[in-house]
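Researcher: Going back to the complex we discussed earlier. I've cleaned up the inputs and rechecked each line, so this should be the final set. Can you rerun the prediction on the complete assembly and write out the structure?
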Amino acid sequence: MLLDEATLRARILELGAEITRDYKGKKLLVVGVLKGSTIFMADLVRSLGPELDVQLDFVAVSSYAGKASTGTVRTLLDLRESPEGKDLLLVEDIVDTGLTLTSLTETLRAHRPASLEVCTLLDKPECRKTPFQPKYTGFKIPNEFVVGFGLDYDERYRQLPCVGVLRT
Ligand code: IMP
Ligand code: MG
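Model: Rerun complete. Updated structure for the full complex:
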């Protein structure tokens, strides 16, 4: 196991406190990238201060089939809330090559949010193929395929309460 539940939750509380400080007095639109971010997002938004003006939305993109990135990012589900004039915080499970978020942030900027930042639970900086850097990162991890806490291998293992390296 790479990250146990207690470690994950403690770090998410810290991220929530940091985001609460940074977005004080702003209109925050938290946008989860389906499906991997859902478990993280549920914990993250509950760690935001109750005084914050927060809305939630989701987008879905597809870039992976099994373990290999196809390099092509397709939008499967778009925003339902208008991000215009709001501070958009995109929540992702993991940044690997950075191709998904490079493409997705470009697409979302066209909707003219007041600002756009990314919060990822995990980051594999060694795998980057673009200069993309998330503003908020839970954990930097080595270049290994991980599952659990929302992350899948062919849609399985998302329900695991921890993050572990998949051995095949
Ligand atoms: P990127 O475009 O290469 O940065 O890939 C990002 C997406 O690939 C993430 O949103 C995940 O869905 C998936 N991904 C990358 N690495 C892993 C992993 O180790 N486990 C599970 N999914 C991964
Ligand atoms: Mg995925």
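Model: Worth noting: The helical segments are 5-22, 38-46, 99-109.
Researcher: Good, that matches what I expected from the previous run.
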